[in-house]
Amino acid sequence: MNNPRQASNVPATGPGPFSEKAAAPSHRFVDDYLPALLAQASQLISSEFHRVARQHGFSVSEWRVMASLAGGAAISIGQLAQVTVTKQPTVTRLLDRMEARGQIERLPHESDRRVTLVRITPQGTQAVEHLMELAREHELRVLEPFGLQRAEELKSTLRHIIELHASAPGETAEEEE
Q1: Residue 39 is inside which H or E element, if any?
Q2: Contact of 128 with 70, CB cutoff 8 Å
Q3: Which candidate, 55, 57, 86, places its Cα nearest to that of 69?
Q4: Cβ contacts of 37 within 8 Å, gap of 6 or more
Q5: What distance separates the 2 farthest-apart alpha carbons in the chain?
Q6: What is the pTM of this model?
Q7: Mind listing the pLDDT tens digit of every residue in the chain (177 residues)?
Q8: Rounded to an integer, what distance in angstroms lies between the CA atom of residue 153 and that of residue 143?
Q9: How far are the Cα atoms of 21, 42, 89, 103 from residue 148, in angstroms, in the given order?
Q10: How far, rounded to the nearest angstrom, does the alpha carbon of residue 138 sit from its chain's CA centroid?
């Protein structure tokens, strides 16, 4: 049965769901929102390297811990959790395994008995040295299209953002109501 009224409601021409106009991407909020852009860039770049870390026997979290401790002084477990963007109980469990393998060691804080410091051992440094070289090569490939000056400016800007927005150890940001 033909219903002329229904047929007249359907446009014969014009933009449909498969036309060029309908396929044009809309401007999403997250396409210009710094936190979303940083998160997306971090996820994409990090995931490329995480495959390499796993091939060398490190979980992503273990790699983050080792990279955060390598070449630096002992830091608190809270600071390590912040730098590795990992919840503190997860970091504590990771440290248990890594300490058993001789990759890290825990030390008492010299003036605060409530704080435990963590540092990488010589064995841990040796275990992660080659992986850090591969990470530097990966970073160079990622930054190469921008040139050395722009790459350094980007890293400097990111360090400044982190410095401006990092809470002091033990502080928590107040929630807005």
Answers
A1: helix 34-55
A2: yes
A3: 86
A4: 30, 31
A5: 89
A6: 0.73
A7: 444 444 444 444 444 444 455 555 668 999 999 999 999 999 999 999 999 999 999 999 999 999 999 998 999 999 999 999 999 999 999 999 999 999 999 999 888 888 999 999 999 999 999 999 999 999 999 999 999 999 999 999 999 998 998 875 444 433 333
A8: 11
A9: 40, 19, 38, 33
A10: 15
Report CA Rg, the chain. Answer: 25
Residue type, 156: S
- Other C-beta atoms closer than 10 Å to the C-beta of 51 total 9
C-alpha to C-alpha distance for 155 and 139, rounded to whole angstroms? 11
Opening angle at CA 76, ends 73 and 79, nearest 5: 95
Contacts of 161 (CB under 8 A, 6+ apart): none
